[in-house]
């Protein structure tokens, strides 16, 4: 469907969210207006691009037609934060946490051991499974981080495998200091910012650092960010997840594209982010998975910060690929409106990846769309836990449904 040379008409769309409000009538609420909603619309996909957007009554003929039956059609979600290259799971750690143990950064080392022991093909198969889940949940653009290798070869391998599935690869050798360097942090810093960065950079667009007690401090992060920028990488920071700290301010000071987590922000952090070009990326599934207090998105939005939502898919704190879940959490528990949450999961994610081509629906843009089995985007939060994704097209090609094993 919509192969190069063929066209597909998505007809009878009840609510088309474009994130392109130009030319649309003013809505009562600014957050809703920002979605650029068109009612009773139609869209034509051709050659992997959006060929036409307009009223259903004026829809042109196409090679194939889907009657959307008044349902909502959205831009594909943009997941700007995902750790997909790993082996093993940490279900036991999760269960222990749910019986009262606190989350600590040390759990990362468990996944590092499993990841190092896995073959390329094992890692590749795990990545493919998670990418399949992301696509079926409506994510059409996603970032993938390394960070569970933490040797020169294992980090380069993780970035290389990530580059097989996305252009948005992030080098996260600065996830934790691995056990073999526990007695020599300076030695690991030298390795990280020297040979490891050099080996990973050819496969990566971004570098990231986990600034947290138990991970890296401000001085260490500063060195990594400087060296990564000098190596031509864009910057991202895991900031203020487990407690207050310097991560968000550091991200803004280094011109990072995104400060991620932002669970514990001071007033100054919020002002700094709002005045910077750094997006505040919120990862509510990590709070869910660690039974932690959720960040207050309202404070960031009120201050004028750009907010993105992402899954943070990882085996430790947030083992989910569901952007609809993140949207529902953001609305119910982080004081976002449904419109703000949808914008953050699409256009916000694109801003966090400094991408202007995705996260909205415009003629000549990529044909990345999600059809909901619901009349409105509001249902994503209003009907939590219900699989409302009826169809996903990525670059005009329909994402196949999950093939389940025969019983
Ligand atoms: O984003 N915060 C750092 N990294 C992951 C957790 C990693 C882990 O526990 O494996 C996160 O939550
Ligand atoms: Fe993360």
List the helices and strands and how they pair.
Layout: E1 7-17, H1 30-33, E2 37-46, E3 49-55, E4 64-67, E5 72-75, E6 77-79, H2 91-98, H3 108-117, H4 120-136, E7 139-145, H5 152-163, E8 168-174, H6 185-200, E9 206-211, H7 218-230, E10 234-239, H8 247-253, E11 258-261, H9 267-274, E12 279-282, H10 284-290, H11 297-303, E13 307-309, H12 323-333, H13 338-352, E14 369-372, H14 379-382, E15 389-394, E16 397-398
Helix pairs in contact: 4-5, 5-6, 6-7, 12-13
This protein binds N-(iminomethyl)-L-glutamic acid and fe (iii) ion.
CATH-defined superfamily of the largest domain = Metal-dependent hydrolases
Helix content: 25-40%
Give helix and strand order, one letter per element, not per position.
EHEEEEEHHHEHEHEHEHEHEHHEHHEHEE
Uncertain runs: none
Mind describing the biggest β-sheet?
A: 8 strands, mixed
Q: State the domain count.
A: 2
The portion of residues forming beta strands comes to 15-25%
Give the number of DSSP strands: 16
CATH class of the largest domain: Alpha Beta
From the alpha-carbon coordinates, what is the Rg to the nearest angstrom? 21 Å
The molecules bound to the chains, other than polymers, are: N-(iminomethyl)-L-glutamic acid, fe (iii) ion
Looking at the structure, the CATH topology of the largest domain is: TIM Barrel
Given the helix and strand composition, which structural class is it?
Answer: alpha/beta
Please state the average pLDDT score. 96
| CATH second-level architecture of the largest domain | Alpha-Beta Barrel
